[in-house]
Write a structure and sequence with these properties.
The complex is a heterodimer of chains A (239) and B (311).
Chain A (H helix, E strand, L loop, with lengths): L1 H12 L2 H20 L5 H4 L5 H19 L1 H9 L1 H6 L5 H20 L2 H11 L8 H27 L4 H23 L5 H9 L1 H9 L5 H23 L2
Helix pairs in contact in A: 1-7, 2-4, 4-9, 4-10, 7-9, 7-13, 9-10, 9-12, 9-13, 10-11, 12-13
Chain B lengths: L9 E10 L2 E11 L4 E5 L6 H8 L7 E6 L2 E2 L4 H5 L2 E4 L11 H11 L4 H14 L15 H13 L5 E5 L7 H14 L4 E6 L2 H7 L2 E6 L2 E7 H7 L3 E7 L13 E5 L2 E9 L2 H14 L4 E7 L3 H12 L1
Parallel strand pairs in B: 3-8, 3-9, 6-7, 7-8
Antiparallel strand pairs in B: 1-2, 1-4, 4-5, 9-10, 11-13, 11-14, 12-13
The chains are: A mainly alpha (239), B alpha/beta (311).
Chain lengths: 239, 311
């Protein structure tokens, strides 16, 4: 399992695509947080990183499926899937190795944003005047969003052997989970609105970003990850 | 070493597989023993790959049993996968990996590590003649060398049973000879099954032959038996002109050979008479004769007879 995990990481950093995706992600976030007049922290005047945490899920909706689209689809297309499946690794081990590799990539993408935290701490007046619990709650929330989107992207990649189709499906599913349910909730549908709100990723993410790490939010997110990984196993077993 | 056929390292019994409503395999049974190369011969779509995929655990069977070294391959796939080395059809590889890196990764999948893995890789690189190419990317290699990489990968965990699905398709004649020599060397103390649709390949390297068509085994014998059981002599006629089968309709069972319409295969119980009859037709039609040979053991015609009789 370890060797497959390392192969996934290597194949990502061995290709131009990997660096391109990471670079674009960081450029987009950098522009949003520091440059664009609508959202930049410097004009805003308060020492917090709300714009980072508001916009990153949008970027993740595209970034994570771009990272995950090839995970299974490419193996199936080139036939190397047969090599993996006839090795002693079980289906679950293969999926977990690929999933953990994806999470690592998400972490690598997020790590540089800790520099933003340091910058804002230094820019605060007095220095260090920042809601730290809020920051780390949101940061953990972002990691969880990345983890959920990775599971969704991996699932999308099991459905087809075309990478582009896997990408589009992944983006769509992430979009529905994050924005779709909360949009439904806003449509004033009585009791249903309540359920839809509870099902939306953004609702649980916002809860985390208040700096309160509630077990029910974590359970919901981990449950979603389990659900999509389980569906991936089912899809692949029945092929 | 155990006696030649004292035990069967691979046994397949009553294997049946459906794809939708189509029966891809129909009650297939056979066995293979160490030290002998078993050739799985059949036209495209006969069920060769399907059988191999079921043995390796990639596909599930609808009914039947497979045992590898006495273990139930359909139940304990994980355990059995360590006993089998498999080269799938079209030899899928990670083209952006380096040869050595790929072998290290493959060894890791079988929990080989450290110096054991290193020495195993060195040994395989040497045996497959990949040493000069080991620092290249697989995508840069020629097809023949890729095939060697695929073989080295299949052998990385020193399996008892080696299964090669069409290992020589698409190779040029030199590569073909090299890979065949390699396969023969590998087979010395292992059970080796290879599939092919090329008769010459079976004649060149196999000890036993299974002829399969439309999911059914039509013949399963040693190569010598298969050749001697077919008591008919085969006459091979080659002319400069293209011929028609119907010209020779009253001579016996005829078919075109591997060279197309310029080569005719005629099966005959009485070669002397048949030869005369053929020469008469050649004269009557004033064909330009290139050669007329007598071949007692043409596996190609045996194969045609067996597979065509069924259809």
């Amino acid at each position: 399992m370890k060797s497959l995990f390392l192969k996934e990481i290597n194949s990502f950093f061995g290709s131009l695509l990997g660096y391109l995706v990471l670079a674009l992600f960081l450029v987009a976030l950098g522009l949003i947080v520091w440059v664009f007049p609508e959202s930049n922290v410097l004009n805003y005047g308060f020492a917090d990183l709300e714009s980072l945490f508001t916009y990153t899920p949008y970027v993740f909706t595209f970034l994570v499926p771009a990272l995950s689209m090839r995970a299974i689809a490419e193996e199936r297309k080139t036939g190397t899937w047969e090599l993996l499946r006839t090795s002693p690794l079980s289906l679950i081990q293969i999926l977990l190795a690929k999933y953990f590799a994806l999470i690592c990539l998400v972490l690598v993408a997020l790590l540089p944003t800790l520099l933003y935290f340091y910058s804002i701490v230094q820019l605060g007046d007095p220095v260090g005047n920042l809601d730290q619990a809020g920051f780390f709650g949101s940061w953990i929330g972002l990691i969880m969003i990345g983890a959920v989107f990775s599971a969704v992207g991996l699932f999308a990649s099991t459905l087809t052997s075309q990478q582009v189709v896997a990408f589009v499906l992944g983006v769509f599913l992430c979009f529905v989970l994050y924005f779709g349910f909360s949009a439904l909730a806003d449509m004033q549908l009585g009791n249903f609105s309540y359920w839809a709100e509870d099902l939306s990723l953004s609702y649980h993410y916002i809860n985390l970003s208040r700096g309160v790490i509630d077990s029910s939010d974590l359970f919901f997110l981990i449950g979603l990850i389990g659900l999509f990984l389980g569906c991936s196993v089912l899809v692949l077993e029945n092929r | 070493m155990t006696d030649k056929i004292s035990y069967m390292s691979l046994e397949v019994s009553h294997l049946t597989k459906f794809f939708g409503k189509q029966k891809a395999l129909n009650e297939i049974s056979f066995a293979a023993s160490p030290g002998r190369i078993l050739g799985f011969l059949g036209p495209n779509g006969a069920g060769k790959s399907t059988t191999m995929k079921i043995i390796t655990g990639f596909l599930a069977a609808d009914s039947g049993n497979v045992t590898v070294m006495g273990k139930d391959a359909l139940a304990s796939t994980k355990e059995v996968s360590r006993l089998i080395g498999y080269l799938p059809e079209n030899n899928p590889l990670y083209l952006d990996m380096y040869v050595r890196e790929f072998l290290e990764f493959s060894g890791g999948l079988y929990q080989l590590k450290g110096s054991a893995l290193k020495s195993r890789i060195l040994e395989l690189l040497h045996r497959t003649g990949l040493e000069p190419e080991q620092h290249k990317k697989i995508g840069q290699l020629s097809k023949g060398y890729r095939q060697r990489v695929g073989l080295a990968r299949a052998l990385i965990h020193d399996p008892q049973v080696v299964i090669l699905d069409e290992p020589t398709t698409g190779l040029d004649p030199n590569q073909l000879v090299d890979i065949r020599r390699l396969i023969q060397e590998v087979a010395k103390n292992k059970t080796l099954i290879l599939s092919t649709h090329i008769m010459q390949e079976v004649e060149a390297i196999c000890h036993d032959v299974i002829i399969i068509n439309k999911g059914q085994i039509l013949a399963s014998e040693s190569l010598e038996n298969l050749k001697s059981n077919s008591n008919k002599t085969v006459l091979v006629l080659e002319t400069e002109e293209e011929m028609e089968l119907e010209w020779f309709a009253n001579v016996g069972k005829v078919d075109f050979g591997s060279k197309g319409r310029n080569e005719l295969l005629v099966a005959s119980a009485n070669p002397a008479e048949t030869r005369k009859a053929i020469m008469q037709i050649v004269q009557d039609r004033s064909l330009n004769l290139i050669s007329l040979n007598q071949n007692k053991k043409n596996l190609e015609l045996i194969f045609r007879e067996i597979t065509n009789a069924e259809s």
